[in-house]
Amino acid sequence: MQRRSRKFDAGISLTPMIDIMTTLLAVFMVTTPMMTSGIDLELPAAGRSAMTGNDHAIQISVDSAGRYYLAREAMPLNDVVARAAAMRTENPNLTVMISGDTHADYGAVMRAMGRLKDAGFQKVGLRTQIDNK
Length: 133
Known about the structure:
Layout: H1 15-36, E1 58-62, E2 68-70, E3 73-74, H2 77-90, E4 96-100, H3 106-118, E5 124-126
Parallel strand pairs: 1-4, 4-5
Antiparallel strand pairs: 1-2, 2-3
């Protein structure tokens, strides 16, 4: 009986991996700005440096009519706090950035901050823009 000798190609083709990585990069570049953007607000001006939050912060917005938003979805304050608390179970170090419109009721912004503090969030900030005056 004669044995057949087979040659195996042990090389790794990088082309499929490069294609996959390019596709993933494109998907993340398109979706990341959507995850961190909220509704359009006129932020209050405060000082020479603005608090903008980081990419891993939960973005909560209060518009001029006093409505609450988590990212771009409007919902009651209790639902905002419940969803934020659910997100915190995945990452206990999450921070919360509240964006209050310049014309928003001060009480509505502070109510959101108080409820988040009561829910156990230690890092709650208020977003502002740079004061150019």
